[in-house]
Amino acid sequence: MEKIKMPVPIAELDGDEMTHILWGMIKDQLIKPFVELNTEYYDLSLPNRDRTEDAVTRQAAEAIKRLHVGVKCATITPNYQRQEEYGLKQLWKSPNATIRAALDGTVFRAPILISRVKPVVTCWKKTITIARHAYGDVYKAVEYRVPGPGKAELVFTDEHGAELSRQTVYDFNGPGVLQAMHNRDDSILSFARCCFAYALDVKQDVWFSSKDTISKDYDQTFKLLFQKVFDEEYRAAFEQAGLHYRYALIDDVAAKVIRSSGGIIWACKNYDGDVMSDMVSTAFGSLAMMTSVLVSPDGKYEYEAAHGTVTRHYYKYLKGEKTSTNPMATIFAWSGALKKRGELDDLSELVHFGQALEEASLQTLNDGIMTKDLCGLAEGITPTAVDSEGFIKAIRERLEAKLA
Prior knowledge:
The chain is an alpha/beta fold and 404 residues long. It has 14 helices and 16 strands. It has a 10-stranded mixed beta sheet, with helices on both faces. A hairpin with a 5-residue loop joins strand 7 and strand 8 (163-172). The longest helix has 24 residues, at 218-241. The protein is globular.
């Protein structure tokens, strides 16, 4: 068959360890035989980030902004152990955080559903997408380990040097710990717009949760700005589409989500979204079956897997051992990016290919051919456990049949 044309490139952000190995397999076996793949390539592996002093990450973010679509492999955010292992100049920042900041984006994470793996929460029938505000809160907090008695204060001084507020946080009688968090109105407004625009795109209701009864300024700001954006910019479009927006306290939403059938976007502040996305993915089956897309308010998209670099399997791979690493989320990152490129450029063949790749992957799992992480979760079938190469080969066979 003639390969599908792809005139405009996407930004390709390669990564680390076992996911980097799977990255090559997916391209070589599932994409390049069918598509004239056109990418701008950026090597975001930890050694190259160290060599370029992280300039490559900033360049990749600019490429996504320019090309409107990117696809990213999982990468290492180094700790001290990784710094010693790789001989790094310094502890480089998370590439995801750098790209999120550059795009002013919101992370949407949704599980991949298959009929052979039932959610732990039996009433869940449709996906629950977690929209995580990827800025501020604990992740940009300032902390201090209090050594002994003393007064902790929260002080704000304006740009002219005038002290506008001074509040006592706590009078310590002994050792303790302090933490100060912040957020910005413009970031919260972007978060709200991303959530409502994405909801219209995927035709799902939005539930936003925080704890404004306790946090009467910080969380209340989120609540008020979300409502302002909805009322002024999205209410009419939501009503026309038959969609709904609701705000509730996070403990109330958590309880209602457990009793729901799914099919919603649950918008969360940064820490809440970090925790809830792992909870939702595990309850649906596996973190390896969780998609992730970063969406900017002005329509830039970066697709990736929600999981890490699968270090343990990588060390086995280096020893020449076969691994049964689940590539589904990485496959769906590629299919999502290709479909979006096709949508933006009016390339129906490319959109169809992305859909066929996803359908072939799901069919493989529903036929009982699975990586080991899913075999223990399968119902109604005796699964066949395969290694990563065998799994991708099985997808290739089904993909060829769909495209024939």
